[in-house]
Amino acid sequence: MEKNTKGKSSFVMEGQTFRKRFPLKYSWIFLFLACLVLWVMFYSENITDHITCRLSELKMSVLTTKAPTPNATTSKRPTEPPEPANICSFHSVLPEDVLEAELLKESIAWPETPSLPPNFSLNDTSGSAHSTFTILPRNGGGSWRVGDQLEVLIQIADFHGRRKSSGGDVLLARLHNPTLFAGVAGRVLDHRNGSYTAAFSLLWEGSAQVEVTLVHPSEAVTVLERITQQNPGRIYLKGNFRAGSVTEATSCNVCLKEPPEKLCNFTDIRTGEPWFCYKPKKLKCEHWLIHSSGGFSLKLKPMEEKLFQRGVNMKVFIQSSGPSNITILPKLKVLNETVSTNTSGRGVITQPAGYYYQGIWRALDGSTVHQLTNNSAISQCLSGKVLHLYGDSTIRQWFEYLISAAPDLKKFDLKSLTQTGPFMALNYAKNILVTFCCHAPPIRFGHLPISQIRYIANELDGVVGGENTAVVIGVWSHFSTFPVEVYIRRLLTIRRAVERLLTRAPGTLVIIRTANPKALSLYETLTNSDWFSIQRDKILRTIFKGVNVRFVDAWEMTLAHHLPHNLHPQLPIIRNMLNVVLSHICSPAGNFKKATKL
């Protein structure tokens, strides 16, 4: 048998050649270099941190990548965020919530608004001076009657009087009767060609006057959208650190674009809600003592500021091109039955939550709003009940109303700060407990001790619940400067906690307070514009749609009232809001399980 020695000889020859080219005395150099590379990869903190950060960024970019949609040419999509410099992101939501967040953002897509060249002219922007509204004739002719729907055509023009050819203006509309103290909010539909339709339900007999307000021209929306994406930290918040006589203050926010080693990570362990502060120079992260509001840092260009002028193009009335009021007759009755005459067929349907008549709010969801305006009525309603209020200052306002309207409800002195709480009020004789707790950062209160930073979801997980427990939640105002993902994340966290509460204690009553329109200055607009509130209000309603909760429609209750808009609505509006809350609480326990689903 012939032995195959050719391959072996070749291998020996190649090995000899290799040893000749690379003598064995140099092999230790290659071994040393290999070990050095392994040591750097596994023990260098900077390298591993960099790898972790880049992997997180890659994951986040994949999660936030959007697919094109058929209506992308007609609706303005939220601007894609720049690639983050760190693992935190204003645009991040939990991975399991990415799809729902995308759908929510699609639901608030705003019509395309004009791009603004550096030297644009204010005269070319939307204004109220030449804009008009016209009451459209009743569909089918004849007289207006209770139960009909009124429609109004709004045409926006610039300061030259030229009609606009695109949409995106922010408009509010209401129908009212000052003599009857009656009012109802209208629904505005943007046709995206400079014209809009406002629709109103006709709900009382007598005169009704149309009122249309230009909140912002479409060009102002362009600015508001830009600063939200580019300057989400324009309201800066602070962390105050203290140890002995040494104090330091650093900036804090949902996201800070710095490496992790330069930050204090105060992300909530249970909810995962992110919160970061820059590390103090002398103290440690564990010395964090107070959360507080820092201030505002944003400067618009002079021409851009002109887009936010009260009495010119911000919260100004639009005039009618003809009559601005109608007369509403009673419903027709045939054989003792009321005949509906609502024959609107133009494609705009308004379904208001309620309306005012004689200054009293009347709900249209089938519930009865009782007038509980004195001490004995409120105390009787709350007898044997526990009422927990969670949220911002607009919820704190409800706590303050209750203890003022019901002196038997004594506020217990918890030595807490007036602005932040927490608060507790008791009526021992009737076994009533009312509490207030503000929501966790981002919140712009002056000073909030970190011992009182409480995420609503965590608080809800500690509520026993039951048929004698009511929970009120109001979260909206302090999230307006951030990209909408921050608000979505917080609400989804709260919704999950609400669902857990209702699962273990189905008889618990949960009430959600919506946003409300407010007075606007330049500062208020850049931080808390009605345009921000409109979007977040819609997201709030959508997130809790199908969940067994009730709503207090603060938006319509403020818009429909004759009093001016205010972040903290005036007493008559608050009284009506609390009558809605107390009416829900005083309803038979069985009704809690049939709460309205919007």
Helix content: 25-40%
Low-confidence stretches: 1-25, 37-85, 589-598
Write down the Rg: 30 Å
CATH topology annotation of one domain: Rossmann fold
CATH-assigned homologous superfamily of one domain: SGNH hydrolase
CATH C-level label of one domain: Alpha Beta
Beta-strand percentage? 25-35%
Would you tell me the overall average pLDDT?
85
Instruction: Give the number of helices.
Output: 15
User: Which CATH architecture of one domain is right?
Assistant: 3-Layer(aba) Sandwich
What are the salient characteristics of this protein?
598 residues, alpha+beta, disordered C terminus, disordered N terminus, Immunoglobulin-like, 10-stranded mixed beta sheet
SSE layout:
Elements: H1 6-21, H2 27-43, H3 45-63, E1 75-76, H4 98-107, E2 110-111, E3 126-135, E4 144-145, E5 149-158, E6 170-177, E7 182-185, E8 187-190, E9 195-201, E10 206-216, H5 218-230, E11 235-243, E12 246-253, E13 263-265, E14 276-278, E15 288-296, H6 302-305, E16 316-320, E17 325-329, E18 332-334, E19 337-339, E20 354-357, E21 360-363, H7 375-382, E22 386-391, H8 393-405, E23 410-412, E24 423-427, E25 432-438, E26 447-449, H9 456-461, E27 469-474, H10 484-504, E28 509-513, H11 522-528, H12 530-543, E29 550-552, H13 554-559, H14 571-586, H15 589-592
Parallel strand pairs: 3-16, 4-17, 22-25, 22-27, 27-28, 28-29
Antiparallel strand pairs: 1-2, 3-5, 5-9, 6-7, 6-10, 8-9, 10-16, 10-17, 11-12, 11-15, 12-14, 13-14, 15-26, 18-19, 20-21, 23-24, 24-25
Helix pairs in contact: 8-14, 10-12
